[in-house]
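re: ur question from yesterday

yeah so i grabbed the chain u mentioned. its 234 aa long if i counted rite. heres the sequnce exactly as i have it in my notes:
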Amino acid sequence: MTEKQQDNRQVALLDRSTGQLLNDFGAGKASPGSGSAAALMGLLAAKLLITVCDKSATKPECKKNENVLMYIKEQVLAIEPRLIELFEKDASEFDEVVALRIARDIAESAQEKSKLSRQSQDLLETATDNAFHIIELCMKLIDHGVVVFESGWHAVRGDSGAALSAAIAGVMSAIFIANLNIKTLKGRKYAEDNLRRCDELYKELSAKQTKAFSCVTSLNAEAIASIQIELDGT
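ran it thru and got these structure tokens back, copy pasting raw so excuse formatting
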């Protein structure tokens, strides 16, 4: 790593400008990569849910749901720093995985190659654990998103829907990552232990997606009814 790269790494990724961060993702490098992207989707969902809870708290029509919405806000605020940590952690640890792979490829002795390969796979297991943790947190955000969509202020259901979409994308992305890493880790006990876990998580996501899609369906029905009423009145 060059001195300039070291200086850049000292700046937390999430402290960079939005433009710079997007450029970092599009720079063709291993880090920040898909793991950090999955965590970022979760963070976007969290911020949108907090916004909806805060806006809803000021509306008389949501007074009956105030306790539920404030509880969800507390839960989301607890999830947010964990996703921030995973965002940075994944980028840092995958940098190390790549460095170990490069060192392995240029190592001259079979013993050194084997050692570096083992170290890179050990760290890849840690990176995969990061993905599973992101899945766990984003699954919770999906559940919170459905409740907020149904209980929050009707005028900001676009925000609730965007939060749901981002949380689902975070889970789906992390499942992709976990499966890919497990394929790379084939022959290790870790891969055997976690292969079925990915399948179970995908089934869980499918069930949650069905609930999320019901929110879209209900809003679409409202839109159709509203337009029909207007047409009938003309």
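noticed a couple things. Residues 189-232 form the longest helix (44 residues). also DSSP finds seven helices and no strands in the chain.
anyway ttyl
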